[in-house]
Amino acid sequence: MSRIITLGNELLKNQSEIVTEFDKKIGEYTENMFGLLVRYNGIGLASVQIGDLIQVFVVSIPKDKPRVFINPEIIETSLEQDVYEEGCLSIPGINADVTRPSYVKIQAWNTRGRPFTLQAEGLLARVIQHEFDHLKGCLFIDRLHPDKKERLLNLYNKKNQKGK
Ligand SMILES: [Zn+2]
What we know:
This protein is of the alpha+beta class. The protein has helices at 24-40, 122-135, 146-163, and strands at 44-46, 56-59, 67-77, 81-86, 96-101, 103-109, 115-121. The strands form two sheets. It has a five-stranded antiparallel sheet, sandwiched between helices. A two-stranded antiparallel ribbon has the order 4-5. It binds zinc ion.
């Protein structure tokens, strides 16, 4: 099983590439990602977090089916915004309130290479936007005020030094 890469790994800052081949492998690949979500007790994971710069992310939130998004585009967002405390498997131990649109409409492909659109609100919209950001090389801390981001980075570095 793959390992999840963490803050400090430069890969996390990179843009992911479009997926062009939809064969059996992509299904097995996303199954592996869902396995990691269970193991790490997460609700969303992007490919870049396991070191692959491809436009794939998976979402699994309570009371909803597991969802795969390949080559996603967010085609609509609401003006209305929500504040919600986010975390990230690639920045363990750090949480912060992030403001994002409360509704999104997303277009993506499934593992069989078929396109779909989905309208999401609440937690689903939140996780979709967080994971979509990963494909652009953006982390949730990048969406915070620079002062706040710096405080969190210092905290993260302190915590990580203690662990060593
Ligand atoms: Zn994340």
